[in-house]
TrEMBL record:
Pfam families: Tmpp129
Residues making up the signal peptide according to the UniProt record: none
GO cellular component entries: endoplasmic reticulum; membrane
The protein, known as: E3 ubiquitin-protein ligase TM129
One record GO biological process: protein ubiquitination
Major location category of this protein: membrane
Superkingdom of this protein's organism: Eukaryota
Family: Belongs to the TMEM129 family.
Location in or out of the cell: Membrane
Membrane topology: Multi-pass membrane protein
GO molecular function, one term: ubiquitin protein ligase activity
Coiled coil (residue ranges): none
Originating organism: Geodia barretti (Barrett's horny sponge)
PANTHER family in the record: E3 UBIQUITIN-PROTEIN LIGASE TM129
Amino acid sequence: MVGVWVLYSSVFGLYSLMEVLGLMPQEVRSAGITLPAIFSPLYGDQNIDFVGYHVKRTTVTVLLHLLLPVVYCLGLGIVEPEWNMFNPWTISMPLALLWCASFGAALVGITTATRWYADSWKSHPLMKTLARTGQPPRIAASSVNLEFRDIDKFVASLGGSVVIVTDSWILQTNVHGVDIVHQRDAVLHVSSSEEHSLTTEGTSAQYLNISVQSINTEIYKSFSIRLNSLQYTQLTERLMSPIRVARSVLIHQSIADRFSVAFRDQVARNGAYTQPPGSPAMEPCVGCLQARPEVKLSKQCENDQCRQCFCRPMWCMSCMSKWYSARQDQYHLETWMSGTAPCPMCRATFCMLDDSLSVRLAAKQHLTKNNLSLSLFYYSRLSSFLPILKNVLIAKI
């Protein structure tokens, strides 16, 4: 028969292992029954003070995890009373050493947390990293807090880690700390990938191991992030510099990303649409409000269902491909290229053959006017110089 202490040690050890390594199931973390989550009211709101929130969270987490051995010894003394865990005169030597090691770990945790708190968190690893950036730590922390409030940021959660990419910073929060590097100093490299089967039908997920290194090693430490390959495109869109990929790594794109490539190729083959002279200046894409409009819907097919669209170019290639793919049968991918979709504005039906690249004639006219103005400028300067040259030649003669 298995002893009670074996069962207790197994359960406590498994829980502690998942707690310390950040392997708690998502359902457990969502329910808020992990040790750091229990004390979350002490941290504040990370949407207001991201740096302060994680400084307090990691401090409490380190303290609680180093107190786990003492909690284990207390529980062991309760489930095995005959071991005399609470009697220093009759306890056995191995159990006494266990108590000493537990108290030692607790002392380290209490000392560390007290030191970080006593000097207003200046000695906390995250604040020390921000202090090395050349700015006062509070100013650097305010920059991180401000950019974290921006809704247009990349956030990816995997296990106990969360990767966050803002306009200027790359951050990764984990169980016991926060990795941070400024984008201008970061060099990202996809070193390897892993594939895991998810269903009996053979559906799999690919995870990328990305190394984040800094060109200023005296300021930032290198770290690694793990990311689902379906989020790779979103990550690259938020980075200032491209990610280097090892030759042995083949990144699996999502269906939407692969269709976007096919959509661009088909639109490029459909030819170009030139806007007539006097057309109003094009505004940013109404979908993303960032890119310039690239697509003009102009009926070119022989399908009776399609109608002529009279809307001016208002959508970029990426947004139009997302609009088109979202209105296709998600269970029959083979029909996407031959399908149809309504215009986002006037609802005129169009197909893949009706998308044309928009070429703005006004831009060419502007360039021509600039060239003409430049020619007139040189001509006027040359005209003023000709009488002087004529007088010089006459004097020579």
